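Hypothesis: this fold can be encoded by more than one sequence.
Test: take the structure tokens below, design a sequence, compare later.
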């Protein structure tokens, strides 16, 4: 059977159209007013893969929830997934369990830098990077991405100048990049790696969105690009974004360099974020050993949602432009033609229509002219969100 036919078969096996009522479940995303439609924070409104649900149910049925260890099957699940899906041969000893990518990044910042040193980020970027740096008494050094003709890339002359600052000791890389949805290619990652090596800057690569690529696209693990990238990097990975498992607190840190790995291992254990809860391991193992079919069906569905949004906005809200992307379920909406700050627009739209989007200010760089929209929800919800967006923009222009 051809690959396209397999994907179509997988798609028909899972139902992403049925809404799931998340009100009253303690959901961060859905703890909003009754008339509001949240399309902001990056979690999905889909039930996770049935295979993962079954693994959690089996663990729950045991009824005893004591202290947990990280078994061999957890290591094998990560190694097998990255080899099969991403062409990377991990070694078992490179992996360390962690309760989440954000706790890992914050711990790494504390362990590998000293107060007042600078950590470089390429903005606009995941807003919590700022928290992980500033809350630990370090300085944020923004190196904005270049935005030209509606697309983002890297100004390498500017990047090298920033990296040459002797106070910069760490760079947080987002691969694929949130919020712009960019998959960095091999050549780009290699140049980043070479520059960081030249200027003695360690790379921490956040690759949590790596499995959420559009059909026909794949990402390149930073550590797989070259010996330099491998030996001078720390990679944070997890099944949580792709399989909607953020609440289970399950992730991994992958570090080929033994000296770096020891330091990070000490930091994670000192910060007490290196031990799993009873559901963290079986959920991750099920995701990486049994979840491929569900994930591929999801990727098709998300791509169709993206296409719907792009077509609608181009036709109905021409003053907004959707930035081209190849990964994540987050769309970056350029509102610069409206001539005002996106935080103001986001607040107005929420008040006027109940549609709750993320304003771009918090992502740094040129984010003040952008909104971020989460389209990982049933198609009817996306359609409702687009209707509210059109209504809100029309009202904003007529105010």
């Amino acid at each position: 059977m051809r690959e396209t036919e397999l994907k179509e078969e997988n798609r028909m096996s899972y139902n992403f159209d049925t809404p799931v009522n998340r009100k009253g479940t303690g959901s961060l995303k859905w703890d909003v007013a009754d008339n509001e439609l949240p399309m902001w924070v990056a979690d999905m409104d889909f039930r996770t893969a049935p295979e993962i649900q079954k693994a959690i149910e089996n663990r729950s049925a045991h009824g005893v929830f004591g202290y947990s260890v990280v078994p061999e099957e957890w290591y094998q699940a990560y190694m097998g997934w990255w080899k099969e899906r991403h062409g990377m041969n991990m070694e078992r000893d490179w992996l360390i369990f962690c309760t989440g990518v954000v706790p890992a990044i914050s711990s790494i910042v504390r362990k590998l830098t000293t107060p007042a040193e600078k950590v470089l980020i390429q903005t606009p970027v995941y807003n919590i990077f700022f928290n992980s740096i500033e809350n630990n008494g370090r300085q944020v050094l923004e190196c904005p991405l270049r935005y030209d003709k509606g697309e983002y890339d890297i100004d390498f002359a500017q990047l090298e100048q920033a990296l040459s600052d002797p106070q910069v000791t760490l760079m947080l890389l987002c691969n694929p990049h949130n919020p712009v949805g960019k998959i960095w290619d091999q050549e780009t990652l290699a140049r980043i790696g070479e520059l960081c090596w030249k200027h003695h800057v360690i790379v921490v690569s956040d690759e949590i969105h790596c499995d959420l690529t559009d059909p026909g696209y794949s990402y390149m693990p930073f550590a797989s690009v070259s010996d330099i990238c491998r030996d001078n990097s720390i990679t944070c990975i997890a099944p949580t974004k792709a399989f909607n498992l953020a609440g289970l607190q399950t992730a991994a840190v992958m570090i080929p360099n033994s000296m770096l790995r020891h330091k990070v291992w000490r930091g994670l254990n000192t910060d007490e974020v290196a031990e799993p809860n009873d559901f963290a391991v079986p959920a991750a193992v099920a995701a990486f050993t049994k979840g491929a079919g569900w994930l591929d069906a999801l990727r098709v569905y998300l791509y169709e949602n993206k296409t719907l949004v792009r077509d609608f906005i181009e036709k109905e809200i021409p003053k907004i432009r959707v930035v081209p992307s190849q990964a994540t379920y987050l769309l970056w909406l350029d509102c610069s033609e409206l001539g005002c700050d996106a935080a103001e627009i986001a607040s107005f739209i929420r008040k006027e229509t109940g549609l709750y989007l993320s304003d771009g200010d918090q992502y740094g760089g040129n984010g003040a002219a952008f909104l971020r929209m989460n389209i990982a929800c049933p198609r009817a919800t996306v359609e409702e969100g687009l209707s509210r967006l059109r209504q809100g923009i029309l009202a904003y222009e007529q105010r």
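The chain has a mean pLDDT of 96. Residues 223 and 230 are 4 Å apart (CA to CA).
Hypothesis status: open.
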